[in-house]
Design goal:
Layout (H helix, E strand, L loop, with lengths): L1 H20 L22 E2 L5 E5 L5 E3 L3 E3 L1 E4 L8 E7 L5 E2 L3 E4 L5 E2 L2 E4 L6 E9 L2 E10 L10 E3 L4 E4 L4 E5 L7 E7 L7 E7 L3 E4 L6 E10 L12 E6 L2
Parallel strand pairs: 3-12, 14-20
Antiparallel strand pairs: 1-12, 2-5, 4-10, 5-9, 6-8, 6-11, 7-10, 11-12, 13-15, 15-18, 16-17, 16-19, 19-20
Length: 244
C-alpha cells in the first residue's frame, strides 16, 4: 500500500506541474438537472486533456422552463486546488448554463446545471465544457411545454399486412419535432377497448414480435407534448397475425 501511495503522490505532483504550466488562466468561481432524458450522449470535441466525457443524461430531452444537469467525468481525480470548468451554450436563450463551474478536490464527476428558457418550437442546443485547452460538447433538445399537432401519418406496416406469428414487426410513422412522446396503441378490436399495447415512445418507430395470439390486430398513433397534452389520433390500420 505504501508503494501505491508513493506512485499516487508522484502522479499528483506531475499533474500539478502540468496545470501550473498551462497557458490558460484558471479562475476559481462559484457557481446546479428534470429534464427528462432518458438517455443522453455527448463527449464530442478535443480529447487531449482531463475531461473524459460530457453526457447529457436526462437533460438530453429538456422541457422548456425546466432545470436539469449534465454529467462531466474526468480521467483522474481533481488535484488539491481543484479545477474550474468554463461552460457555454450555443443558444443562451434556449438553454442557460453557468459561465464557470468548480470541480472540488478529488472529484471524478460533477453535475453542472442547465436551465431551459421558453421555446415555441423544439430546438437542439450544444453545450460546451472547457478545461484548460480541452473542450468537449453534448447536445440537448429543448421541447416546448405545449404544442399543437396534426394526426400522425402511419408508414408501416401497410394496412392489412399479413405477418407470421412471432415475427418482429416494425411500426413506423412520421416525425414531429415538437412531440415529446408518441403514443402507440395496438388492440384486438378497432374500437381500442381491448388493448394489447399502450406505450409512450421517444421515437417515431417501435418494434414488437408478440400480439397476444393470431388474428386481426389494429394500431394507431398520436403525438403528445411535454405537458402530457395529446393531439388527434392517426387513422387506424390493421394487420393480420398468422400462425406459422
Amino acid at each position: 500500500m505504501k508503494f501505491y501511495s508513493i506512485l499516487f503522490l508522484v502522479a499528483l505532483v506531475i499533474a500539478g506541474c502540468t496545470k501550473t504550466n498551462d497557458t490558460n488562466p484558471v479562475t476559481i468561481a462559484s457557481e446546479v438537472e428534470p429534464g427528462t432524458a432518458k438517455d443522453g450522449g455527448g463527449g464530442g470535441g478535443n480529447n487531449s486533456g482531463f475531461i473524459q466525457s460530457v453526457l447529457s443524461g436526462n437533460a438530453s430531452r429538456l422541457i422548456s422552463t425546466y432545470r436539469d444537469s449534465i454529467l462531466v467525468s474526468f480521467t483522474q481525480a481533481a488535484p488539491p486546488e481543484g479545477w474550474t470548468l468554463i461552460l457555454t451554450s450555443s443558444d443562451p436563450a434556449a438553454v442557460q448554463v453557468p459561465s464557470t463551474y468548480p470541480v472540488p478536490p478529488g472529484a471524478f464527476v460533477v453535475y453542472p446545471p442547465v436551465t431551459a428558457g421558453t421555446v415555441i418550437n423544439a430546438k437542439n442546443v450544444t453545450i460546451s465544457v472547457k478545461l484548460f485547452s480541452q473542450t468537449k460538447t453534448t447536445v440537448l433538445k429543448v421541447f416546448p411545454l405545449t404544442a399543437t399537432f396534426p394526426a400522425p401519418l402511419l408508414q408501416s406496416p401497410g394496412n392489412g399486412a399479413n405477418i407470421n406469428f412471432r415475427i418482429l414487426v416494425t411500426f413506423d410513422w412520421n416525425d414531429n419535432n415538437n412531440a415529446y412522446y408518441s403514443q402507440l396503441q395496438i388492440s384486438i378490436d378497432n374500437a381500442f377497448t381491448n388493448l394489447i399495447t399502450d406505450v409512450l415512445l421517444n421515437e417515431s418507430i417501435w418494434a414488437q414480435s408478440y400480439f397476444n395470439g393470431t388474428g386481426t390486430r389494429y394500431w394507431r398513433v398520436r403525438f403528445v407534448d411535454a405537458s402530457g397534452n395529446a393531439g388527434p389520433w392517426s387513422q387506424v390500420r390493421s394487420f393480420v397475425e398468422r400462425p406459422q
